[in-house]
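Predicting holo structure, glutamic acid bound.
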Amino acid sequence: MPSPAPLLRALLLVLSAGSLAAAAAAPISRDDPESSDPGRKPISTAAGSAVVVSANPLASSAGLRVLKEGGTAADALVTAQAVLAVVEPQSSGLAGGGFLLYWDSQQQNLEVLDGREVAPRSSRPGDLLTPTGKPLPWREATARLNAIGIPGTVALLWEAHQQFGRLSWGRTLQPAIQLASDGFLPSPRLLRSINLAQRIGVGHNTAFTALYLPGGKPPPADQAFRNPQLARTLEALVQHGGSDFYRGALARQILREMARLQAGDPDFRGWSPTDLSSYAVLRRQPLCSEQLKHRICTMPPPSSGGVGLLQTLSLLNQSTDLPGSSAADPQTWRQLARAQAWADADRLYWVHDPIDGGGPAAALLDPAYIKGRADMIKAKPAAEPAPGLPPGIGRYPYGRPNQGREQGTTQVTIVDRFGNIASYTSSVETVFGSRHLVAGMVMNNQLTDFAFEPQVDDQAVANRRLPGRRPMSSMAPTLVFKQGQPVLALGSPGGRSIPHLLSRVLLASLVWNESPQRSVGMPHLSSRGQGLVLEQDPPIPWPLPLDQLQTSDQPARLQRVGSGTALVQRINGRWHGAADPRREGTALAIADLSSRHSRCQPQDLKSDP
Ligand code: GLU
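Done. Tokens:
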């Protein structure tokens, strides 16, 4: 065993080299979707009978007003998402996609809505390859019309509102319309994101540059920023309902504008009216597992994030004495890093749109299978993680995908005073998606989440692009139950790192019994292939010396981590919210109304178009 001094020197070398590299390169990768905000900020927290946590103060306060008027978590979610489309367009919007876990308190039922983008009918597996069959460089691919999936966000919001809303649809969209037409002061993060988009490339869409880079520069920080076109789009939705996006005049406008853009991109074969009209939000069964003495329910495929999160916790449980662990114990952190890496190897190989027959999500969580994987890690800790063969599968049916890059996502978590809970992760993929603007909306580039190479070594890759398919995701909105009742809800952006971030937060909340604020603000670590990223400048300092986290098989480097966790937790009968200070997240609450709480029942006050 090497003496500590050379080991420490070696680590410092790796760490300093890594941090220099991180500072020089643009903070854009599949694992680091959006940069974290520089400097330390206080962690926004709030507690009461109803709580809303989102990535932007304007979205949280608009959502809170809706809750105060007696709206449900679904109403507040529609409001928050519509406002985010205006004030945080770099991360989510009406032309993106997302996943919702919704706890319906009255029915005591957990619903899962899948509003993921879909590949249009004209898609071909090799659409993101060069003419010579090589994967397109990632930056180039993000701007391609072929990267834009048929958006699911509006359909998801409409569906959630139809089923769980209480206020009128028009009321829920009003704050966003007002902000888009009257204007708002652009936040520092929005302005930084515009700079980042400019660095990736924006020249391919004049509407985008006219709006976000007037005169070639980001809009002034001290003047109201308006998006009148988006206000008109939102007004059309108020008037005609969510179906306008898919089957009405708005659908026709989207198709017209996409056809116009097609002239500049000869590889794009276009969208048909059927692409929009056949879009459907899918109801899925939550993926649930008993972990950390709780029942944890999360997003099933086409997301791999939920499988990854549950596998990570399960592997960790096999390798560490969790009840006896503390945040200062290096062993727990090291095992967490290994568990993440091994879970990644499985999820990134196996998970794909279950449209062509269920993927092996349940088998990947089989206790005997997990035990076998944990034993393998114990026997050969330095071995390179590889996908396993879960029970019932005798051979590897797919090619092993090569990894690329990605980013551009937000999390909203809301509990209302009726006890309904929304945990919602929503994305346009890269910062400002494809940087194409249609009807004032940022168009996603979510189809870069498909494997660019449909075949590897003559075997089809599971997550290949096919018409009507949804690309594999890492987004994992999650709810945690104790004795059948929800006690915690969370989610985060973070691209490939999402299950890594969430596993660390849950470890802090459920095992180390940290407060919501500390659970969100404590440092992250994230396995990246054979390497390990240790968070640089975390909001709450590392609870142990970093040299204790170095292992020979996972060289560590320091890097900022752009998580955006939104968490609500029930503690002693009261809901507490905490927002990630790495972005502009804000938690707001309705002060306790315990005497009125039990009398307040949802009733139908809706008047929809
Ligand atoms: N497109 C990614 C996914 O669906 C999310 C990217 C992000 O978190 O920024 O997994």
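Residues 1-27, 594-605 have pLDDT under 50 and may be disordered.
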